[in-house]
Amino acid sequence: MTPTDNISSSHGEDDNISRLTNLGHPTQTMEKIFYTVSPIIWFTTALVGLLGLIGNVLNLIVYIKLGFFETIHICCAAMAISDIGCILTAMWLGMTCFSPIVQSLLAQYRVQTDLCLFAGFTGGWWHGAFSRTTALLTAWISIERFCASSVPSE
């Protein structure tokens, strides 16, 4: 190995290091990805949430018209209400955290805040409560249906 080989290999390593450092800071790259993907997430959340709201409102109307004479009607109406709350809070989280409109408004007024932290504080706790209530109602309806089919009343 000659001394020039050693110099060329160290120059190659420096060249690789300079290529890696020219990529930019990882945080800046992640911010670019976030701002590129966030309108898509916001639109998808709004569209799916709107469809879910329409479906749950229709369910609620049907169960109200059927009346609350049977326990399954009461449970399903309660689940529709809980799902409506869950969808509204999910839409709030998506709207505040990923909305380009909210981001541009805050940039216009030069407000420095973490939108995802704000959204989690104002809607995340409610979303957790509504989704746990929905899960509890699903388990309740399953147990009720199991008991009704295994031990039918006379």
From TrEMBL:
Residues 1-10 have a biased composition (Polar residues). Residues 1-22 are annotated as: Disordered. Keywords: Membrane, Transmembrane, Transmembrane helix. It comes from Elysia crispata. It comes from the Eukaryota. The chain crosses the membrane at residues 40-62, 74-95. This is G-protein coupled receptors family 1 profile domain-containing protein.
